[in-house]
Input
Amino acid sequence: MMVSTPTLTDRCLKMSLSTLALDLLVRKRCWLLVALGALLSCGCHSVWALPQGAPETVCDTMLPFHAGGSVLPENSVSPFSIETSSSVVGQGQTLRIDVTGAPAGLSFGGFMIQARNRNPPYQIVGQFSPSRDGTVKLMNCENSVNNSATHSNAGPKPQVSIDWQSPVDFLGQVVFNATVAQSYNQFWVGIPSNPVQVVRRDVSSAAPLPTPSSPNNNNFNYASTRSPYVPPSYVAPNAVAASEDSFYDGCGQSKNCFGFPNGCVATKSCTSVSAVTVRGDIYEFELRSGKGTNAAYVALGLSDDAKMGEDLTTECVPENGRINLYSSYTSANPYSAVRVNVPQNSARLLNASLVDGVIYCKVQREPLTVVQGRSFDLRNGAYHMLVASGSSLKENSVGYHDIGRLPSGSPINLAVVQDVGGSSQLLVRLHGAFMIAAWIGTTSLGIIFARYFKQTWVGSQTCGKDQWFAWHRMLMVTTWTLTVVAYILIWVELKRAVWHAHSITGLITVILCFIQPIGALFRPGPNDKKRPYFNWGHWLGGNLAHILAIVAIFFSVKLPKAELPEWMDWILVGFVVFHVLVHLIFSIYLCINHWQISGIASDRQQSQRINTFQMGDMTHHQQHAMRNGMSMERKMDAPYAALRKGLLGVYSVVLILFVVVLILLVALAPIEKLFE
Output
């Protein structure tokens, strides 16, 4: 509807008409006065619209003529959206574009739309086709034909559909940007669509073009939407920008800021962050996700106990290229968020943006919200701030906070400005440290003793047991104790089951670890027929638990709550390579020992066949000497015992270094902060 204000000529015409009317009144030409008065009345109440659509002089700015001065574009979230029939189109193919309002039926008068390259130089691309109903007028911008479109009449319209043909010489992403005017002084500039990928025609024809994802589809690519196109020649004077630097301005001085990982506000490096500003009874909440997180939402909860459940949450969710605000109440089951029971008018979206996948929103909440009989009194109450973000949505709520979640360490009154810190991560750190000590350290060493040192330190015992068995038992009891304690600690921290790759493999490991010593209590005797079955079962259970435990540790590196560096994976890979290499060397020694022992046994059998004589023919002194020789042989270590002991010493030292480094990474997480 591109509209313009009355010009100076228009005002002069009105003044002339008014003067003429006064003259006619003196002449008592009443009939003419009435006609002129009607004409003047129509001029005064006209919207001064451009019924033929936007002129080509606004191709760059996409601004109505009257924009500027006291009439500025809206900086709130647009109720109108630009929707495409597909997210992929082949070169030279046609795409349908819909300009619609939300809620359905919301009408607008004028519009202007262009398709621009998402990357520099942001040129206009493609061509629009004339509409069948005649509501669209085509424009020639940047010396190209029909590359922009506008309205052909300023009448109200709930929806406009336009066909756009992609260029045959362009590959890449395009974004449709539009200006939509709802009334003379209410219009939005630079409303973006989701990006559309222009591909080679043979690629797009290989499979049917996908249809747009529904807002709550978990596969919706929220990170692909881009910011509205704002021409370089125009910057809205009152536009609010949520830049990396400005968000943190005033934190701890004029507003409370809190985000994760803990302490990120001081370094301005939060993965997700919130801010609360209080001015009298005005409570303003700001939320922002981090770069590169592919967040599907960012949320802030107000909690009595720093645990999820029965909390009032503010959620900012990108849907169809714009940010929607939801006020939710998490039930006692923290996986359930009931939006319908929270008065949605208790919160109002003031400003929002979605720039390169970074969600930002500014929300004003009422000081008092009552939901399901619970009152959230922001004036007088004290609440934990609980920041969370995730990469998926559910049908009627946000999904699991797989990107991260952190509650504040203590409840605060939002009006009292202070430095807000996160809750203690001590139990999480202890859990990780104990599991590393158990499964990287004691288990690895215990397996080495049991597998390769049964014929070492022969004749030497501790507490009545051979050395290898005493060390093996001590190390495995330590593993069992550390594992059980670590599992209890994480349950105390979470107070509920959270199922993902790390927790599932960890649970199986704990079960196997718990069973192993119980099975050892029922170990059959050395000569029992069932002993081989026990040996194989004990071997399989121990090795399976060890492998799963190391896999679970690998999975833990990806957990947001752990805050571990990604390069920790390489340290774990180094440990696995070292551990396997040592096993290989020990196995080679073991094979050589078996070969030599088998050779010696064969020689003795042959010697016995040649020199056979009756035990009865031997004197008592000769029999006693033979028994002593056999006893001495049984007490001798297998060959290469010194090499095995030396390799064991090297393995133990390197293993301790691995364990110490990994535990430090867990205890000091996030370790990157020490080097900032």
Observations:
- Confidence is low (pLDDT under 50) at residues 1-49, 204-244, 334-338, 609-633.
- The radius of gyration is 38 Å.
- The chain has eleven helices and 26 strands.
- Residues 456 and 642 are 9 Å apart (CA to CA).
